[in-house]
Amino acid sequence: MISQRAKYAFRALGMLARAEQGRPVQIPEIAARQKIPRKFLEQILLELKRAGILESRRGKQGGYLLARPAAEITYGEVLRLIDGPVALLPCLSQIAYRACEDCEGEADCEIRHVFARVAEASRAVLLNASFAEKMG
Question: Which of 14, 24, 90, 107 could bond 63 through an S-S bridge, CB–CB 3.0 to 4.6 Å?
Answer without folding.
Answer: 24
